[in-house]
Amino acid sequence: MPLTLEEVRHIAKLARLRLSPDEEQRYQEQLSDILDYAARLQSVDTGHIAPTASVLQLDAPLADDEPRPCLPPEALLANAPEADRGMFKVPPILDGAG
Amino acid sequence: MADPTELSLLEAASALRAGQLSSLELTDAVLSRIDALDGRLHAFLHLTPDNARRQAEAADHRLAAWRKQGGDPPPWICGIPAGVKDVLCVAGIPTTAGSRILEGFQPPYTATSVDRLLQAGMVVVGKTNTDEFAMGSSTENSAYGVTHNPWRLDRVPGGSSGGSAAAVAAGMVPLALGTDTGGSIRQPAAFCGVTGLKTSYGRVSRYGLIAYASSLDTVGALARSAADLVPAFESMAGHDPLDSTTVSEPVPSVGLNGRALKGVRIGVPQEYFIEGIQPAVEQCVRRAIEVFWSLGATVVDLQLPHTDLALPVYYLLAPSEASANLARFDGVRYGPRRRAATLMEEYLETRGALFGPEVKRRIMLGTYALSAGYYEAYYGQAQKVRTLIKQDFDQAFEQVDLIACPVTPTTAFPIGGHGDDPLSMYLEDVFTLPANLAGVPGIAFPVGFDDEGLPVGMQLNAPHLGEAALLQAAHAFQSVTSWHKERPDL
User: Fold this and answer.
1) Which residues in chain B are closer than 8 Å to A35, comparing Cβ atoms?
2) Are B292 and B298 in contact (CB under 8 A)?
3) Of A14, A88, A98, the CB nearest to B344
4) A2-49 pLDDT, tens per residue?
5) Residue A94 has what pLDDT?
6) ipTM for the whole complex
7) So where are chain A's domains?
8) Which CATH superfamily is domain B4-262 in?
């Protein structure tokens, strides 16, 4: 099995996902199966092959430097679980583990 | 006039122009049919009847003004009711991407693809069901319940655009928008017996599409025929300053004539007729290829040697991109939040509780593939093999104009049929993933039925930006066959 339970817990933490012990075990098995399957890519000779990040030849065009109308702050805050004085509100981050 | 929901999109559009039918009548008929059927099918997540009637009245005014004053007619899409997959933002209408983590979200803006169709006069009747964040092949991953296949209610409609496919197949709407990252338009189109167009990467703006895998995501549509898809494609395609990956090439006007296939070279990749393919699927597709031959096309065998690597490549690249894209869902700016003492605890609780199992699985897989020590072996290697798959298509299109192949190895499978076995579900996508990795367009359309009465689909692929050739070829086929006219008994 390519993945240990420790690794699953580490990935879950990196991905900011709280998993139950049951989920940890299930994902250990399922992700290991998928990675086993994906291992067939390792045998492909790609020594002289360039990677494809996009099928387009992107030239990163620059936007015109002109002011445009944009959404008002109220519209952007309307979906927030908590907002205060025009800002998104979250618990303290400096003293906690965040 | 008889029940207007039985009209094809183009028939309805002609009746609207002629003043024989109003958009309001058509929209009311569509809403009634949805009301009558959706309790059994669950194709829609949200209905917007009041908005729809307002848009229909506006379309009727526009059509009436044109009939009175002449000039350029409104686009064919004007006054046509449609469903929109719930991963495309429409301002003020709930958009959940099939996820609890976006429950109650009302986007402050509208996706460019939808906006262009609204400008053209299309009427939005509601948002259609989807696998959560478009991750799935059955709509079983929707947090809001599965959609049922109109041909057999115990079967899946496919996915992730399963709500859109079922809605069109059931005659609820003449058109529905979908998205296709690994087959999510073509596979449900095949399972539901409708016609679905996956556009080329970069052809239709992704602005306002809730991103899954940004190098693979495409926006397209599903309807009852290729001809019905033309007005939607022409209205929504084209460069968008808000999406720097849209191409600047002009969108061609798709002329349809039944004799478009003289001299067209069609390649049939041997790698797509694998062991394990359902015999009825192979027979129907091979018979359909003979129809193309009888229409004047040249049919040749073709090799796409890296086909079997598309699946492992896709299931490393797409989850990697997804793990980055879905980092934004953290309970701070939208969606519900699970309260905790610290911000970190809130992230963990909110994401752990509100993402579904498949989304968490793909986020975990992508996070792992991108993590220190594994990046080159997994993500880097997958990107290189993607190059080989794209080269297969580049070389194929030096010899042929179109590629013809099955959409899926089987017809629609039973709800719950894949249990808790993600890898077996992923194998459903084996024939649709390569087009996304190569960025080329594809069209799926019905070519027969299996012995259980379930539709069989076939796929055509064309070179990048070759949508017109796909629509023309599928239309030529549909001009001499009637599979696309079959309707489920509901």
Assistant:
1) 365, 368, 378
2) no
3) A98
4) 899 999 999 999 999 999 999 999 999 999 999 999 999 999 999 999
5) 74
6) 0.94
7) 5-43
8) Amidase signature (AS) domain (3.90.1300.10)
Residues of B in contact with A75 (CB under 8 A): 108
Domain boundaries, chain B: 4-262
Site from B198, B308, B362, B364 to mutate, A interface, most A CB atoms within 10 angstroms? B364
In 3D, which of A14, A89, A51 has the Cα closest to residue B365? A14
Nearest chain A Cα to B337, which residue? A81
The Cα A10–Cα B356 span in angstroms is: 19
Interval B130-152: pLDDT, tens: 999 999 999 999 999 999 999 99
HEC profile of chain A: CCCCHHHHHHHHHHCCCCCCHHHHHHHHHHHHHHHHHHHHHHHCCCCCCCCCCCCCCCCCCCCCCCCCCCCCHHHHHCCCCCEECCEECCCCCCCCCC
Q: Is B244 on the interface with A (CB under 8 A)?
A: yes
The CATH class that applies to domain A5-43 reads mainly alpha
Rounded Cα–Cα distance for residues B319 and B317 (Å): 6
